[in-house]
Amino acid sequence: MGAATSTGVGEEVIRIVGSFLVVELMRQGLSPQEACKKAVERLISRNPVNAKKVQVGFLALNKKGEYGAYALQKGFSYAVKNGAEDKVYDSKSVYYEGAS
Question: How large is the angle between the packed helices 18-27 and 32-46, nearest 10 degrees?
Fold first, then answer.
């Protein structure tokens, strides 16, 4: 299906088996971007108060070469380099620092 990784507070990722979850969601037909977002949403559903205080970001790539990323907080960036592009992106996020 592809591969996924995460960064941030590892204990939060482990609690939802996050990288596995992202790959499993891609196996079920979600795009890498959608799968990363769903994993972030699961983190929030487990502990909404704590989710506003920590950073976790997911990054995924499927076997078609499609990629996506999603994070809890603003500030998670990732780089893509292939035959078509060489660029750094800011991932979408749910919260941002300073949010109430």
Answer: 130
Give the integer Cα–Cα distance in Å for 71 and 73.
6
CA 7 to chain centre: 9
State the Cα–Cα distance between residues 19 and 40, nearest whole angstrom.
Answer: 11
Residue type, 13: V
User: Three-state SS string across the chain, please?
Assistant: CEEEEEEECHHHHHHCCHHHHHHHHHHCCCCHHHHHHHHHHHHHHHCHHHHCCCCEEEEEEECCCCEEEEECCCCCEEEEECCCCEEEEECEECCCCCCC
Per-residue pLDDT of 15-60, as tens digits, reads: 999 999 999 999 999 999 999 999 999 999 999 999 999 999 999 9
pLDDT at residue 95, rounded to an integer = 81
What mean pLDDT comes out for the span 66-81? 96
